[in-house]
Write a structure and sequence with these properties.
Blueprint lengths: L23 E4 L4 H19 L3 H21 L3 E5 L2 E4 L2 E4 L7 E3 L1 H8 L8 E3 L6 E6 L9 E6 L2 H12 L2
Parallel strand pairs: 6-8
Antiparallel strand pairs: 1-2, 2-3, 3-4, 5-7, 7-8
Pfam families: DUF3093
Keywords: Membrane, Transmembrane, Transmembrane helix
InterPro entries: DUF3093
């Protein structure tokens, strides 16, 4: 189970918080294949409805295409390094509890997710990104051995984590 910090009463929207700038932020938006699958589904819907009415088929298909694309984008996880924390998707951990980040290419990610995978590990993956960063979890109370975080810019994410760690 990844280390997730609870929201404290002082962290509510009513309390003033200083504006901070993220050292690193990236949305892991879906790859072209995801949008292609959404479009293909919409074509199938169009073909099924067009027999009844062309305008209705077009309207339904275009609405589904727009809604599906927006949903795929909005639900994409965001990777952020800010305020001494790494956030990947909904999980968040202080960078002081992480070991030194190591960058991985696509082949190394496949190995980590195959024979080397530990089911206790936290993985925020998107196959469309190609690269990733892996970091050991140093917290002895956290059963999660490591975090594997997808990114299109592994070197930049690793640099941001190291900088936040003061290394």
């Amino acid at each position: 189970m990844p280390h997730v910090e609870p929201t404290l009463p002082s962290d509510t929207a009513d309390s003033p918080r200083p504006a901070t700038t993220a050292a690193y932020s990236e949305r892991l938006s879906p790859g072209i294949w995801t949008y292609g699958a959404i479009a293909l589904f919409c074509v199938f819907v169009f073909v099924m409805i067009v027999i009844a009415s062309l305008p209705i088929a077009a309207a339904v298909s275009l609405t589904l295409l727009a809604a599906g694309s927006v949903f795929a984008f909005v639900t994409s996880p965001v990777v952020t390094v800010a305020d001494g924390h790494l956030q990947a998707g909904r999980a968040r951990i202080p960078v002081t509890l992480l070991g030194s980040p190591r960058t991985l290419d696509r082949a190394e990610v496949s190995t980590m997710m195959g024979p080397s995978f530990d089911p206790r590990a936290y993985a925020c993956l998107r196959t469309s990104t190609g690269g990733a960063v892996v970091m050991d979890v140093l917290d002895p109370q956290d059963p999660t051995p490591w975090w594997l975080v997808s990114t299109r810019h592994p070197e930049a994410l690793a640099r941001a984590v190291r900088a936040a760690q003061g290394r």
